[in-house]
Specification:
Layout lengths: L9 H10 L5 E4 L2 E8 L4 E6 H13 L7 E4 L4 E6 L7 H9 L3 E3 L4 E4 L4 H6 L1 E4 L9 H11 L12
Antiparallel strand pairs: 1-2, 2-7, 3-5, 3-6, 4-5, 4-8
Helix pairs in contact: 2-5
């Protein structure tokens, strides 16, 4: 991150996320060392690590700016922080479900990495936020489509 580790505590990290990265971060009242954000102006796309790595590589190959990406080491998932531009569309949700991708929309909560060692067990930045930039959710979904394993369609066999 762009600030020094000395003097970095949950409060200063939360302030950095708000001021520099324009993330709606707050300290979780029930866990003061935990930083969370409500999804309003920022949404998340959560996917398995292998798909996330492929999406990251695809976006780099196509020279699409990545924006912040979180790793959740215990659950082995990545979260791409995105602009909230995905439409309400049942077909899109079904496609994401088949690709094992979920979207955290308005009103959801995403926990952000904190400065304590314990937090690194739960979440770390793959691509840390350095500004208010977030990629379009549609651009990340295009990369998911390009990288998600193709599933064979099952057809009913008549007897």
């Amino acid at each position: 991150m762009d600030h020094t580790a000395s003097g970095d505590d949950p409060s200063s990290r939360c302030d950095y996320y708000r001021r520099i990265c324009d993330l709606p971060a707050v300290l979780d009242p029930s866990h003061p060392d935990r930083i969370v954000m409500r999804t309003t102006t920022v949404w998340g796309l959560i996917m398995p690590v292998a798909l996330g790595q492929a999406v990251q590589a695809d976006m780099r190959k196509r020279q699409i700016d990545l924006g912040p990406i979180l790793s959740h080491p215990r659950s082995q998932h990545w979260s791409f922080l995105i602009r909230p531009d995905l439409p309400e569309d049942d077909k899109l949700f079904a496609e994401m479900f088949r690709s094992n991708v979920s979207v955290v929309r308005n009103g959801g909560t995403i926990a952000l990495p904190g400065p304590t060692d314990r937090c690194a067990e739960f979440r770390v930045w793959v691509e840390p936020p350095r500004s208010a930039f977030r990629p379009s959710g549609l651009a990340v979904m295009d990369a998911v489509r390009a990288c998600a394993p193709r599933r064979e369609r099952r057809t009913a066999v008549s007897a």
